[in-house]
């Protein structure tokens, strides 16, 4: 009997050892906090492939691939291939597209706090605007998208706004009076030009070249990159490099997808987008003089207008938009020193 007991005990220990070994090898095979998961993402934006936003998208793709050891892959859909920005935001919100680089101008129509970014002359240069990404108010503005199924990840800066004129050298804001001026369809931008007496015309980017060529518009609010990539020097004689407003793309992600990722994978997303944003602003800042020269060599007269001449219009903007939203007021109070 004693002998049977001993054999039974030995068998029990043996079974226990086997079970423990099996369990531990199962645990070893499991990915650590989701780090083994594979992703095939889609990213959409509106600019052509030679614009800095597309280059930033490529950098993001490269960083994700590198930081995830190839687990995170991205298919990029540039140049409005997936529709308008309204369509893209809808697709991100529903989850059929994972990421988007969307203009803050468009987002201001869905989440009014984004209007804050269009406070005229809020930053002395691109680097100062880039540094604002890390402020509390900038993060709170991203957070206003939370209720729409969208996670606002970060901002990408690629050149401030300038003014191009078909055949009138506008030297002061009052010279804008009566000009038909293309402005992105966003109320704060349109109000800024209206306050100077221009008639804002809402035209999407692909229609701008023909409109100025045929005289439907007398000028446009644009950035230097897009001025070159769209060859506006062929149809506009004057370029005032005013840098009067920043022009951020906002990096968005489907909120559910982000929420379900492991902390390690969220970190990969956050750090990759940060690397892309830093890359974009650094590369673009270094190109400012080169871009002005490219346009000037192509025959456009490039000049500046003193910021002081815009002071009354800046004040009007702040007085109108500050009281409309606490975050816009906080933004103005933070950066208008
Ligand atoms: C624009 O509509 O002016 C624009 C949009 C995206 C990038 C550059 C310019």
Shape: globular
Number of strands: 11
Describe the biggest sheet? 6 strands, mixed
CATH class of the largest domain: Alpha Beta
How much of the sequence lies in strands comes to: 15-25%
**What's the domain count?**
2
Helix content: 40-55%
Give the integer mean of the pLDDT values.
91
Order of helices and strands: HEHEHEHHHEEEHEHEHEEHHHEHH
Spell out the CATH superfamily of the largest domain. Bacterial extracellular solute-binding protein, family 7
Signal peptide: 1-24
GO cellular component, one term: outer membrane-bounded periplasmic space
Organism: Mesobacillus boroniphilus
GO molecular function, one term: carbohydrate binding
Give keywords.
337 residues; D-Maltodextrin-Binding Protein, domain 2; five-stranded mixed sheet; 46% helix; 16% strand; globular; binds benzoic acid; carbohydrate binding
């Amino acid at each position: 009997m004693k002998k049977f007991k001993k054999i039974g005990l030995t068998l029990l220990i043996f079974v226990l050892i086997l079970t423990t070994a099996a369990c531990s090898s199962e645990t070893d095979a499991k990915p650590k906090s989701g780090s083994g998961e594979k992703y095939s993402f889609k990213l959409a934006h509106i600019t052509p492939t030679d614009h800095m936003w597309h280059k930033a998208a490529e950098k993001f793709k490269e960083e994700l691939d590198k930081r995830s050891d190839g687990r995170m892959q991205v298919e990029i859909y540039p140049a409005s291939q997936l529709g308008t920005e309204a369509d893209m935001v809808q697709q991100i919100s529903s989850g059929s597209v994972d990421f988007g680089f969307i203009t803050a101008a468009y987002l201001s129509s869905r989440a009014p706090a984004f209007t804050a970014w269009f406070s005229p002359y809020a930053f002395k240069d691109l680097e100062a605007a880039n540094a604002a990404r890390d402020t509390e108010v900038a993060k709170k503005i991203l957070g206003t998208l939370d209720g729409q199924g969208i996670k606002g990840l970060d901002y990408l800066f690629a050149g401030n706004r300038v003014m191009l004129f078909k055949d009138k050298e506008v030297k002061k804001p009052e010279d804008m009076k009566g000009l038909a001026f293309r402005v992105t369809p966003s109320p704060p931008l349109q109000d800024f030009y209206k306050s100077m007496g221009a008639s804002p015309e809402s035209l999407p980017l692909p229609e701008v070249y023909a409109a100025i060529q045929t005289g439907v518009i007398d000028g446009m609010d644009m950035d230097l990159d897009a001025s070159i990539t769209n060859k506006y020097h062929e149809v506009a004689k004057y370029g005032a490099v005013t840098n009067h407003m920043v022009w951020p793309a906002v990096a968005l992600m489907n909120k559910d997808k982000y929420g379900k990722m492991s902390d390690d994978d969220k970190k990969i997303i956050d750090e990759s987008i940060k690397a892309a944003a830093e890359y974009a602003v650094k590369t673009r800042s270094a190109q400012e003089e080169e871009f002005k020269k490219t346009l000037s060599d192509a025959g456009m007269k490039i000049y500046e207008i003193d910021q002081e001449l815009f002071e009354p219009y800046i004040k009007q903007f702040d007085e109108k938009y500050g009281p409309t939203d606490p975050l816009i007021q906080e933004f103005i109070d933070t950066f208008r020193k």
